[in-house]
UniProtKB/TrEMBL annotation:
Pfam families: DUF220 (PF02713). Transmembrane segments: none annotated. This is DUF220 domain-containing protein. PANTHER family: PUTATIVE (DUF220)-RELATED (PTHR31385). InterPro entries: DUF220, START-like_dom_sf. It comes from Gossypium darwinii (Darwin's cotton). It comes from the Eukaryota.
Length: 332
């Protein structure tokens, strides 16, 4: 019996007669395929823990970034602050608990005299190393997903830490899911090394600074607040951080105490830098005063000798009081 001959036509490139599946474009696709698959796995890992990346901000989840829909742009919100910059920064509220098997669960809250959009711009800015002094170096930054108001970013950086007379650096490699729709930012470590878990989330919620002008009516939504203040009411931000740190092996005391102190101190430094940048964006005496306070705090942190640290701290407090006394007559 005669064997049947089978022929197959292979598409050829018009340019040099080579098969199309060997074209440069196809070869480039094959080279990029492993990276694309790796990125998909990273995103899947992040989504698994966050259950589809649900909204963490119930207030803004209902309004769908209503500030944009109402035509209240960021510049108008900042202008309201420039016209009335009076704002006193309160110290952040930082609580550290110790869940079983973990080093610490840190929760921090602070009110910032700046609109949510502006605060979110600072936190998600790729160049925010200039703001946050504990970021020593950004080793790599790759945007894996960029859809509308949501981005998933792979970030690796070196961070500075300081506690009492000790200081050093630590490498951090995290996957960050940032969503401007609800002003949320979730992060999770990429590779498990000596840290079994390093994850958490930031959230920013609107704070109605001048809501007393609406009395006896109490606004519950952004639209109601803008209506009762004639669009001139200042909008601040409630910023919160929830972070879990779990090493592969939890160290015994007193090492664990020092590590919790480092975590708390680093978070306090981040918040102080955020407050200083918020004051700078608003402008005026309030900005200069806040920036001076933050710079003074950083000077104190650079000193290792405890007695010298306290002496400088006392001198700064006295100078701050003199600045306030000289500023009050000029304000009147």
């Amino acid at each position: 019996m005669e064997g049947r001959k089978v022929s197959m036509d292979v598409p050829r490139s018009d340019r040099n007669g080579t098969p199309k599946f060997l074209d440069p474009a196809f070869s480039a696709f094959l080279l990029q395929l492993p990276n694309q698959l790796q990125n998909c796995l990273k995103i899947k890992r992040l989504g698994k823990d966050n259950v589809g990346i649900k909204s963490v901000n119930p207030f803004l989840g209902k309004e769908k970034s209503l500030s944009t829909g109402l035509g209240i742009d960021l510049e108008k919100q900042l202008q309201a602050w420039r016209e009335n910059p009076i704002w006193v920064n309160q110290p952040p509220e930082i609580k550290v608990s110790v869940p079983k098997g973990s080093l610490c669960n840190l929760k921090a809250k602070v009110d910032v005299g700046l609109p949510p959009d502006a605060v979110y711009n600072i936190v998600t800015d790729p160049d925010n190393k200039r703001v946050f002094k504990n970021i020593k170096e950004v080793i790599s930054r790759q945007v894996l997903v960029d859809i509308g108001k949501r981005q998933v970013v792979d970030v690796e950086q070196k961070a500075l830490w300081r506690f009492l007379w000790w200081s050093g650096t630590i490498s951090v490699h995290v996957l960050v899911d940032q969503n401007r729709e609800d002003y949320s930012m979730k992060f999770k470590q990429v590779d498990a090394g000596f840290m079994k878990k390093f994850e958490g989330h930031w959230r920013v919620e609107p704070l109605f600074i001048d809501e007393e002008t609406c009395f006896p009516f109490k606004p519950k939504t952004w639209a109601e607040y803008c209506s009762c203040t004639g669009g001139k009411g200042r909008i601040g931000s409630k910023v919160s951080l929830d972070q879990l740190i779990q090493p592969a092996i939890v160290p015994p005391p007193p090492i664990s105490w020092y590590l919790r102190g480092i975590t708390s101190k680093t978070t306090e430094m981040l918040i102080n830098d955020l407050l200083a940048e918020a004051a700078r964006l608003k402008g005026g005496f309030n900005a200069e005063n806040s920036v001076n306070e933050i710079n003074e705090q950083h000077q104190v942190e650079q000193i290792n000798d405890i007695k010298e640290r306290w002496n400088l701290h006392r001198r700064n407090v006295k100078l701050r009081g003199k600045r306030l006394l000289t500023a009050e007559p000029s304000a009147i």
